[in-house]
Amino acid sequence: MEPVLLRARGAADSRAITTYLKAGGYEGWKKALAMGPDAVTKEVSDSELRGRGGAGFPTGRKWSFVPKDHPGPRYLVCNADESEPGTFKDREIIEYDPHQVIEGIAIASFAIKANTAYIYIRGEFVRWARILEETITEARQHGFLGKNVLGSGFDLDVWVHRGAGAYICGEETALLESIEGKRGFPRLKPPFPAVVGLFGKPTVINNVETLACVPHIITRGAAWFAGIGRAKNTGPKLFGVSGHVNRPGVYELPLGVTFREIIEEHAGGVRGGRKLKAFFPGGSSAPVLTAAEVDVKADFDACAEAKTMLGSGGIIVFDDSVDMVEVADNVAHFYAHESCGQCTPCREGSDWCMDILDRLMAGHGLPADPDTLLRICRFASGGMTICPLGDAFALPITSLVTKFRDEFERHIAAATPLPPRKLPVLPWAGPKAGFGI
Amino acid sequence: MSTRPIEAAPPRTVQTVTFDATMDARIAELRQRYPTSRAALLPVLWLCQERYGWISPGVIRAVAERLGESPAFVEGVVTFYTMYQTAPPARYVLQVCTTLSCAWTGARELVAHLKERLGIGFGETTPDGTFQLVGVQCLGACGRAPVIQINDDYYEDLDVARLDAILDELSGRR
Amino acid sequence: MPKLTIDGHEVEVAAGTNLIEAARAAGVAIPYFCYHPYLAVVGQCRICMVEVAGQPRLALGCATPAADGMVVKVEDSERAREAREAVMEFLLANHPLDCPVCDQAGECLLQDHSMSEQGSKFTTHMAETRRTFPGYERRLIGPHVVQNQNRCIHCSRCIRFTREISETAALTYKSRGNSTFIDTFDGSSFDDPMSGCATDVCPVGALTLRETRFRKRAWKLRSTPSVCPGCSIGCNIFIDHHERVVYRFTPRENPAINATWLCDHGRFLAESLNEQAYLTPQHQGPGHPVPAAWGEALAAVGALLRGAASLRVVASANMSNEELFLARELFGRQLKGEIAVPVAAGEPRRMKNGRGEWLLAKDAHPNAAGARRLGLDTVDGEGLSRFLYGGAGLTLILDPEAHPFLASPEALRLLRVGTTVVWARRSHPVADGATWLLPTPSIASNEGTFTSSTGAVQRFAEAFAAPGTVHRTATGGMSPDCPTIASPWGAPGEARPLWLVLSALARELGTKTLDLASPAEVFTLMARSEKGFAGLVWEALGGLAPQQSFRERQHVG
After folding, report:
1. What distances in angstroms separate CA A431 from CA C26, C125, C134, C151, one per listed residue?
2. Strand order from edge to edge, sheet including C394-397
3. Which of A276, C85, C104, C267 is the most interior residue, by most CB within 10 Å?
4. Per-residue pLDDT averaged across B90-100, rounded?
5. Beta-carbon separation of B101 and A82 below 8 A
C-alpha cells in the first residue's frame, strides 16, 4: 500500500507548510468549506472511519451525536495524549507531517460547528507540543485558521494544551477535566461529551491519527478510503511494533493484515533468532495473544473475535525468554501508578494485583494467588468502574493468568514461605506536641 | 542536542511569589484561550515551573490567587500530575522509562548502570545536585527503546556506552 | 411521576429521583458511602450497584434516575449482591478494621453495611500488608477536626462539602491512585466556619471531632430533636445526650433552613448546656445569698410583684415564644409593667439551605423574630441602657444573657437602685447581685418553640427533665431517659424552666387564664389569640411526633 499518513516521512522539510501544500495539503479543507458541515459528516460516515485511539468507535457517528439545535459554543478536542504502553504512532505523524492533523481538526470543527479546538498533548512530549504550536502559527499565517477562514465566514482558533504526566488523561472525560484545570478524574457517563462535554458544552474528542485521516477522506472520497481494508474496518492504520523484533518502528498498513505479516515481514521478525512467545496486539490494555494466535487479522472486528482488541495498534512482542509473570507484574505496576484513585475497584484492585505479583516475583507465591488475581480482575472490570482503566489492567492480567497459568504455577511451586513479618518499630510520627490528642 | 539544565529557585526565594510584568502578560495571554480562568491552571503551572524550576507552596498560593481558586485546590491538581516538581529538582532529571518494551530491551541494564555510576537510587539526587534519577512509566517512545527523558529532551535507542557519553557531556559542561 | 418496581415493591417517585431515594421510599435499603443527598453525585464508592432488568451491566443506584416501568433488583439480584460483596472486600482490603478503638463505631456506614449484609461471614483474600499513611494516622488538621487517613475510604464527601457547601475548598485529594489522601493546603489549618460538617459527612472514622471523640460511644447517645440556640437562622439539630449530660449537637435535616449542616459556632454550644451555676432559688441575705425553697421564693416574688410601685421587665430573645407570650400577658397586660427585649446583632453568621441559598443571621439570638411577632419592643444595647436608666420599684431580668450590655459596669450601676429579680443558669454579675435569684435550666431541659429569621416556627423538645424533678412515663414507670430522680451524673439542684415559673407566678397572683400545665397549652392559647401564630398546631411543628417521617441521622451523615 502506498503510504498515506506517513507519505512525508523521510522527505526534506517534511513539516513545512510549503511541502504540505505542494502535496495537495489544505485542499480538503477548502473542499469541506464548500461542501457544508452535513455533507462533510456524511462523507466521513460513509468512509466507515473508526477511531484510532483505542475504542474504534465510528467517527462520523460520534460527530452526529452533537445536538444540532444546541446554541453553542461547541468544542473539538484532539487527543494527543498517546500514553498507552506500546503506542508511539501519533508522535510520528506530528514529527513528519503535522499539517494533516491541523487540517483534520479544521474539517472536524467545521463539521460539528465548533469555533475552538484544543489539542491535548501529553506533558512529556515537549518537542511535539512545540512542533504543533509552530504548525498552528504557520496555518494561521496562511489563513487556514483564525477569523473568517478563507473568506468562508467560519472562525476557528486552535490551542495546544499540555498535560503534565497522567496516563488517565487519555480517557476522554479525564482529558476534559484536565483541560478544565482539574485533577484528571474521569466523569460518570451519561451524559456523554457529545452532549455535555468541555465546559459543559457539546464536545467531540478524536485521536490524532483519526483526524489525520479526515483530509484524505475529503480530498480522495469516502469510497477510496472504504476500499482499503474490509467492511467496517477500513482505511490505513499505523502499527507501532516494539519489543523483541529486529526492526521496531511505526508501519502504515491497511487494516486487516495479519499480525504475522506485521511482525515477521515488516518488523523483521523476532530478534536474535529467538522464537515468538506472545504479544500485546494493541497496547498493554489489550488481552495478550500467544504465538499460536499470530495469524489473527489486525483489525477491530477480527481482534474482538479473538477476544482481544486492536486498541491503538501498539504491538509489543515478547520472545521465548520472557517470564510472563514478570510481564504481568510490569503491567500491574503501570496501572497501579496510573489509576486516578477515585473509584474503589480500580484504586484498590490495581494496587492489590501489583502487591500479589511483586510477592510472586520475590519468590513467595501462594497457591491461591492466580485465583485471587482472577477474582480481583473480574470485579474491577465489566462496568464496575467509572472509566475503562479497570478493564485496562484487568483484561491483560486475566489473559496472562489464563493463558500462561503454568508459569504462575511454576513460580508458586518454587516459592519459599514469606519470612515472618516483623512488627515495625515506628518512630512517633504523630502530631506536634501541644495538640492534646 | 544540548539539554538545557534546570535552574531551580532556592526555596527561600519562592516562599512568597509576586509575578513580574512578563509573567503577568503571559498569564493574561494563557487566560484568554479558555472560557474559565480555572482552565488556565495547567499552562500557568507549566509557566511557573519554567520560571522557578519547581512549584513551591508560595507559587501555589500566587497561582491560586491569580486564578481565583483555593490553594488546596491548586495543590490537589499539582500533586495529581507527576511532572510538576514539588521540591527543587537537580540540574538534570534522568527519567528512565521502566515499562514493557523498554524494560525488556535494555532499561534494566541502564538503570543498574546509572545506579552504580551515580551512586544513587530512584528518587535520589547526586550530592553535587547535577543528576536526579527517576523511574517513570511509558514515555511513548517504545519503537526506540530504551529511552530516557532528560529534562525536556528524549534520548532514544540507548545503550550503556551512549548513556555514558551523554552523562559525560552533561556533567562536564557545568 | 415515574412508577417502578424495586425488589417487588411498587413505588411512585418524583421525576429525577435516583434509585437510592426511590428504594428508600419503597422500604428497600441500597447501601452507599459516597452518595449524599445534598452533595454532587460522583459514583465513586461503587457499593450501590443494582440490577436493572434489560440492562446488561449493573447500574449505579446514585447516578441512575428512576424511570417509568423500571424493574430494579437490589437484594433479589445475585449479580448485584456479588458485586457489592466484592466492593466491600476492596474497601476493607486496606481499611484498618480498628472499630474497637474507633470513635465512629456505631455510626459508621462501613461498619453498619458490613454487619447488615455480611454479618460474621466476611472473608478476605487479602494476604498483603495493609496500606498506611505514616504521620497521617492521628492528626489535628484544624481547630476541631482530627484526621486518621488509614481509615479513609476515599469517598470525597468532605472535599465536596468544602467545595459545594462551605465554599472554602479547603480540603483536597493529594497524590493519586492508592496513595491518594485528604489534606489541607501545605499542612495549613482546616479553617472553615463549618468544619464540623466534614466529620458529619465522613462515613467512617477518618475525620472525627476533637471536642467529642472518645467521650461517649455513639450507641449510648440519645438524640432529641431541637433547634440551635446560636443565632436567628434556627438550624435544626439533635441534642445528643446520655444520663443528663449533653455531648454534642448534630444537624437534623431541614431542606428549607440547614439541609444537613450546622456551623461550628452553633455546634460547639453543646458543651455549654451542661453548665449550671445556680442550683436553688436564693435571696440576698446580710452580705451573702441565702438558699430558699421554691414555695418560699414564689411567695416572696409574688409579694414583690403585688407591692411594686413600678415594674420593668428585661425579657430576652433567647426565650421561647411561649415564655415571651406568658411574660407579655402577665407582666405587661396584667401588671402594666414595661417590657423590653434586647437584641444584639452579634457576629455575622450564615447557613446554606437545601436549595444552595445562603441564609444570613440577622440577630445573635434564636427567637428575635418571635419577640417581634409578639409585638414586643426590641432594643439594642443603647436602648437597653435608656430602658434601665432612672430607677424603678422592681426590675425583672428574665435572662441576664439577653444582651452583653447587662454584664457591663454601667448596667450594674443602674441596677443597684431598687429591687431586682433575676432568672439565671450561668454565673453572671447581675444574678449575683439580685434580690431574688431563680435558677433556670438549659434548653436541653426545656421545651417550646422559636421563630427563625425566615419565619418558621420550630419546636425544640426536652432532652431530659430538669434536675430534681420526677420524670415518669405514661404507664407510670421511670423513663429510661431519666433513670432516677437524682441521677448521679446529672446536675443536682432545682432549676425550673421559665415557662413553668411564669405560670406558677400567674397562679400565685390569681391570674387563672395563664396558669397552664405545659408549653403546648401556652402555645394553643397563643395560637388562638395571636395573629402571628394563628392556624399553627403544636403537634405539627418541627415534626417531633414519632409518626412523622424523619430521616435518621445515619442516612444523611
Report:
1. 47, 34, 11, 17
2. C289-291, C282-284, C436-439, C419-424, C394-397, C311-314, C338-342, C377-379
3. C267
4. 97
5. no
Q: Which domains does chain B have, with CATH numbers?
A: 11-80 (1.10.10), 92-172 (3.40.30.10)
- Close Cβ partners of C484 (under 8 Å, ≥ 6 residues apart): C478
Q: Which of A84, A165, A243 sits opposite B82 (nearest CB)?
A: A165
What is the C-alpha separation between A144 and A136, in angstroms, rounded? 9
ipTM over 0.95: yes
User: Which of A87, A280, A318 lies at the smallest CB-CB distance from B140?
Assistant: A87
The pair phi, psi for residue A152, each rounded to 5°, is -85, -15
Q: What architecture does CATH give domain C139-273?
A: 2-Layer Sandwich (3.30)
Cβ-based contacts of A327 with chain B (< 8 Å): 100
Beta bridge partners of A254: A236
How does the average pLDDT of chain C come out, rounded? 90
pLDDT, mean over chain A = 94
**In terms of CATH architecture, what is C3-93?**
Roll (3.10)
Q: How far apart are the first and last CA of chain A?
A: 73
**pLDDT, tens only, B126-155:** 999 999 999 999 999 999 999 999 999 999
Chain B contacts to C (CB-CB under 8 A): 57, 60-61, 69-76, 79-80
Inter-chain CB proximity C134 and A348 less than 8 Å = no
Q: Domains in chain A and their CATH numbers? A: 17-226 (3.40.50.11540), 239-318 (3.10.20.600), 324-413 (1.20.1440.230)
> Which single residue is written with the C-alpha cell 449537637?
C249
Q: Which of A72-76, A244-248, A423-427, C157-161 has the lowest mean pLDDT?
A: A423-427
Of A91, A240, A337, the CB nearest to B137: A337
Nearest to C320 by CA among C254, C395, C406, C226: C226
Residue C73 pLDDT exceeds 90: yes
Closest Cα of chain B to A435: distance in Å? 23
Q: What is the mean pLDDT of residues C442-460?
A: 94
Q: Mean of the pLDDT values across residues C192-215?
A: 96
Q: What is the pLDDT of residues C130-173, one digit of tens each?
A: 999 988 999 999 999 999 999 999 999 999 999 999 999 999 99
CB–CB contact B35 A86 (8 Å): no
CA pair distance C545, C187, nearest whole angstrom? 46
Contacts of C514 (CB under 8 A, 6+ apart): C326, C329, C330, C334, C502, C503, C506
Distance CA B121, CA C55 (A): 51
Distant-in-sequence, close-in-space partners of A214: CB < 8 Å, separation ≥ 6: A28, A44, A49, A59, A103, A104, A107, A108
Q: Among candidates C495, C500, C499, C470, which has minimal Cα distance to C484?
A: C470
pLDDT tens digits along C252-306: 988 999 999 999 999 999 999 998 889 899 999 888 899 999 999 999 999 999 9
Give me the pLDDT at residue C472, please. Answer: 43
Element (H, E) at C387: helix C381-388
CB-CB contact of B8 with B54 (8 Å) = yes
Q: State the Cα–Cα distance between residues A328 and A59, nearest whole angstrom.
A: 33
Taking CB atoms and an 8 Å limit, are C172 and B69 in contact across chains?
no
**Are residues C131 and A351, on separate chains, in Cβ contact within 8 Å?**
yes
- Set of cell numbers at residue A135: 504548525
pLDDT digits (tens, 9 = 90+) for A316-368: 999 999 999 999 999 999 999 999 999 999 999 999 999 999 999 999 999 99
- Which CATH number is correct for C282-556, 3.30.1330.10, 1.10.150.20, 3.40.630.10, 3.40.50.740? 3.40.50.740
Written as one letter, the residue type at C551 is R
Q: What is the least distance, in Å, from the CA of B60 to any CA of chain C? A: 9
Interface A–B counts its CB contacts (< 8 A) at: 139
